[in-house]
Write a structure and sequence with these properties.
With 334 residues, this protein is an alpha+beta fold. The chain folds into two domains: 42-59 and 191-303, no CATH class; 66-186 and 314-321, no CATH class. The protein is built from five helices and 16 strands. The protein has a 16-stranded mixed beta sheet that branches. The chain starts with 12 loop residues before the first helix and ends with a strand. Mean pLDDT is 83; it is low at 1-14 and 16-33.
Length: 334
Amino acid sequence: MHYRPFWPKIKSYKNLFCLLLIVLILATSGCLSVKTTKSTATLLKSYERLPANTLIEKINSLTEVNSIKGNASLKLTDLKLSEQGKIEPYRPADALVVLQRPEQIRLLIRVPIIKQNIADMTSDGDKFRIAVYYPDEYRRFLIGSNSGKYGEQLEKMSGQDEKKLQQKQQISSIARIRPQHITEAVLIKPIETKNSKLEYFVSDLAREETDIVPGQSPKRVLRSYEVLYLLEKLDTGQLRLLKEFWFDRTQANLPLAHMQIFNQDGAVVSEVSYKKYKTIGKTAFPQTIEVIRSMDNYILELNFENTQENTDVEKSVFFLENKENLPEKDLDAS
């Protein structure tokens, strides 16, 4: 008995190619079963929820830190081209930081090792002053209001030399940093529960994240949060979302992990992350703070080092003078 083979006789390479193409089409269309392994996020253990008033006490306890001064490592990332899938991280810089409640700040940014000044800035909560020292061709002394929007003016502050485009973008990014963006992230204002216009509530939220542990491969985890929503009651009777405070339920003491700040239109204007808490008196205070300002096209990360808290600070520290006679620009004048 002769059996006809299942595989047809191949007369040419052309027939071979056609046959392989048919197999490929069948495989990709699901006719051939292929076993795949899909990784899922690991659900992290979560601790008991806390009542809303306890979460508010955690926020208000941060006001026990009245002033901070010390060194910090500063990392700046430019988001101007983020819509094209590109971000531009710059080399870390050294910083000298002085903060005092309610909204005063002095921030001096320097080149590491050689300690050459890049920029110096202050804010009293209403006005800011920024001195750009380096490089020489972009030296400026800028004065403006914390509530002002100066995007176009800052883009025009330097020339169009393509060879210096990257340097121009970095200086422009530094000039876009508003000192008050740092004060509102670090010196969080207390929640006035007796204010009749304030409303709040809490809810649970789980978010999939990448967990990075030194010496281990990154893995996807599902982290649980308890979120405190702070709202303002308007004269029209409507409610406007002001802030969200995210507390990490995967840690026993439920530390504040994130804060989001919203504008009048309900859009997120600032996203802040808090890590590496340090005990100051009876208060746990974060030492690593990341501020994401998508509308201002930058991310700023501060890692505090060798800080002193609740010490006396001279008022003159928070007033920046144009001692080097830099070309001065009042951004509100135009």
